[in-house]
Amino acid sequence: MNEASPNRLSSTAGVPTARPRSRLAALRDSDLWQSFVASRLVVAAALLTTLLVGAAFLAPLIAPHNPYDLKSLELIDADRPPAWEEGGDARFLLGTDDQGRDILSTIMYGTRASLMIGICSVLLAVAIGLSLGLWAGYAGGRIDAAIMRVADVQLTFPAILTALLIDGVALAIFKRYTFEGGKFWILVMAIGLSYWVQYARTVRGVTLVERDKEYVQAARLIGIGPMKIMFQHILPNVMGPVLVLATINLALAIITEATLSFLGVGLPPTEPSLGTMIQVGNKYLFSGSWWMVAFPGLTLALLAVAVNLLGDWLRDALNPKLR
Amino acid sequence: MLAFAIRRLFEALMVMLAVALIAFALFRYVGDPVNQMVGQDATLADRAELRRHLGLDDPVIVQFGRFVSHAVRFDFGISYQLKQSVTGMIAERFPATFELALAAALFAVVFGIPMGVYTGIYRDSWLSKVFLTVSLIGISLPTFLIGILLIYLFAVKLGWFSSFGRGEVITVGFWRTGLLTISGLKALVLPAITLGLFQMTLITRLVRAEMLEVLRTDYIKFARARGLSDRAINFGHALRNTLVPVITIIGLQLGLIIAFAIITESVFQWPGMGLMFIQAVQNADIPVMAAYLLLVAFLFVLINLIVDLVYVRIDPRIRIYSKGTG
């Protein structure tokens, strides 16, 4: 097997290769809580994440305006600076965009869209990677070789390129049949299909170790089917590393979604995500309307950094080798 | 060594065939090529004639063979959107992307290695902390956000550099270069920094980690015991031994630079292949997408192959490993 080349890349690119030995059980360990409180940075990141996620999911309740409600938009309100600047309006704390939408409310709804796509695509990637990884590791032989070869090939290309390509093809296919929320699921599919490889590799590694242990052999001896062994006996042992990977990949997925939307192949301006807002705001940067791009950009940066920090902490805390 | 090289070459060929199959399927089955090429008022006879001319009625395997043989000769057909030959479009845009990628890689190496060495030697100084914080930002911020930030600071507020296009270009043979004019060089600065920042942070962190590792080894201690100057130890002994992995990573990163060039070119409206690809995706211009996919895949496979082979030459452990399992 040519394990060498992709591994070399991933282990040095700062992408965590979670060690198989960490267990979900370690979560209950008090060390985790200790290391959490010990780092003020992590506590700050957790608070920030909670704040952003809370504001995003409570948006319909607490946002001052509804950016999806086209009737409430007044063009006379368009392009207003933040309330503390000259020409600002107290109704629009962070100003308005080119169509008169309140930036603060749009950020809340946009963060919600970004988070939803991020979470759904990570779930999709986990589902694919977990199943294929379990299958490859448990079955071994030709199936293993085939799945891992596909993974190797996909790993040759950067995920953003794969996502862009899947997105582009899906858009070309579904161009005529645009359905409600279709763009959302296209993005979820594009990002999910681009990030499954890491899970498959990690899960396969753990499965290879676990399948020769006594408890699996015992289960096989008393006649339990392979499906049940894979998903009920081996699966709990791989959840730790998968959880860590998923947290870090959530930040990556959010950034990927923002990038695709920024490139104009993501969510449309009528149902904006953070990336779409930045794309729209970017057009008005030269006319001095810095707030249209600054606030969504700041939100995206804070969200990505905070989730990244949480993921890093989780990786270190769950990895007994680093303790 | 020879067996290893042949096997890697074979694998690379298989990857290229797989990618070609995807590109072919895109071209053949996503939308109807004939509908895309003729106007609304074309008669049925015209369409049938074009179908026959394109060979769309032949067996699929024959069509795939023709597609591959055309692709090998750099013939990717006509763009649906611009009605130009895709090969011509790529040839026109390749120099822009190449110069941008080169400048970005240069920026990353020239700043990344010294920063890595410095943070490795003086790990507790305040400047090291500044470098590492900057590199953390470089790793966690999305590329397009960094580009917008640079545009706002240096183009809108300070007006030092231009923020879109390549500036004036000079044609040297078939190559249109922006490196020979002042406005061309000024236009290159911001996109190159945007594109190179991520690679720079990566190189900084890698060199730092390697330096920390090497500086702990016995031969460094021995060099100190021999009374060699710090300078000779740090650069003559330590840095030199960190360079093998660093060069490997830089090689592999070249592919990533090309991928991220899509984003940078889009932010700065840089007239390169990445911008062409993004416009092709937005317009569902399949021939351009297929050609770009094949070209990028070829570059990636080539880089991976070279890095693997060079690595085997440099590091004898891999030779033994590949003999053991292969």
Overview of the structural elements:
The complex is a heterodimer of chains A (323) and B (326). Chain A is an all-alpha fold and 323 residues long. Chain A is 67% helix and 0% strand. Chain A has 13 helices and no strands. In chain A, helix 5 runs antiparallel to helix 11 and helix 11 packs parallel to helix 12. The longest helix of chain A is centred in the middle third of the chain and has 37 residues. With 326 residues, chain B is an all-alpha fold. A two-stranded antiparallel sheet of chain B has the order 1-2. In chain B, helix 6 crosses helix 8, helix 7 packs across helix 8 and helix 10 runs parallel beside helix 11. Chain B is globular, with a radius of gyration of 24 Å. The chains are: A mainly alpha (323), B mainly alpha (326). Chains A and B meet through helix 1, helix 7, helix 11 and helix 13 of A and helix 1, helix 7, helix 8, helix 10 and helix 11 of B.
Give the SSE map.
The complex is a heterodimer of chains A (323) and B (326).
Chain A: H1 4-12, H2 30-38, H3 40-57, H4 59-62, H5 103-139, H6 141-156, H7 159-173, H8 182-194, H9 196-210, H10 214-221, H11 226-262, H12 274-282, H13 291-318
Helix pairs in contact in A: 2-13, 3-5, 3-13, 5-6, 5-8, 5-9, 5-11, 5-12, 5-13, 6-9, 7-8, 9-11, 10-11, 11-12, 11-13, 12-13
Chain B: H1 2-29, H2 33-37, H3 44-54, H4 60-72, H5 86-121, H6 126-140, H7 143-157, E1 170-172, E2 175-177, H8 182-215, H9 218-225, H10 230-268, H11 273-282, H12 286-314, H13 316-325
- Give the radius of gyration of chain B: 24 Å
Output the helix-strand order of chain B.
Answer: HHHHHHHEEHHHHHH
Name the beta content range of chain B.
under 5%
Tally the beta strands of chain A: 0
Give the overall form of chain B.
Answer: globular
- Rounded mean pLDDT of chain B is 78
Distance between the termini of chain B: 12 Å
Helix content of chain A: 55-70%
Q: Globular, elongated, flat, extended or rod-shaped: what is the shape of chain A?
A: elongated
Task: Count interface residues per chain for the largest interface.
Answer: A-B, 45 and 54 residues
- Rg of chain A, alpha carbons: 22 Å
Structural class of chain B: mainly alpha
Strand content of chain A: under 5%
Count of alpha and pi helical runs of chain B: 13
Number of H- or I-type helical stretches of chain A: 13
Mean residue pLDDT of chain A: 77
Model regions low in confidence, pLDDT < 50 over at least 5 residues of chain A: 1-25
Structural class of chain A: mainly alpha
Largest sheet of chain A: none
